[in-house]
Design brief:
With 174 residues, the protein is mostly helical. The protein is built from 9 helices and no strands. α3 runs antiparallel to α4. The longest helix is centred in the N-terminal third of the chain and has 20 residues. It is elongated, with a radius of gyration of 19 Å.
Amino acid sequence: STNYHQVVVRNYETLRDVCAAYDVPVPPSFHAALERAHAANVRLMMPDGRLPDLNDGVRWAVDGLLERAVLRYPEDASLLNTRGVIHARSDELPRAHADLEKCLTLQSITPATRARTLAWLGRIAMRQGQPEQAREWFAQALKLDTKANALSASERREIEAIVSEQPATRAAAR
């Protein structure tokens, strides 16, 4: 269940904290398993940013669960990207922008995560009234997406329309 998963994650986080407090090393496989447990929340997250209520689960808000995960695994681009997207969906645009820009600097970023990050930076720029900056982000996302195939067909069509739109057309439409 999604609730039991959170109980296990918290228990292992507490164990790691106690070990750190007493200078007792934990094996790298322990950290890797805990990072995968945090990543499972991201994979299970529904469009509203919450976990599904599976079995005896709770509809946990993933952003709260991600805070500790991002602190523990600051080099995990997928976790940082997801937190940025959640901030963007919640209209916390400065926080979203900061997370997504940082995500682009991480060594661990995959082409698919980079394409999604660039697309979200484009959406944020549009919402902040910066259409030219948005077009730059979107163009980069589309270029990467030809190989990464991270964007949905509808996202790709929407972004292609924005990128191909001429500045004079946009000004006349206002």
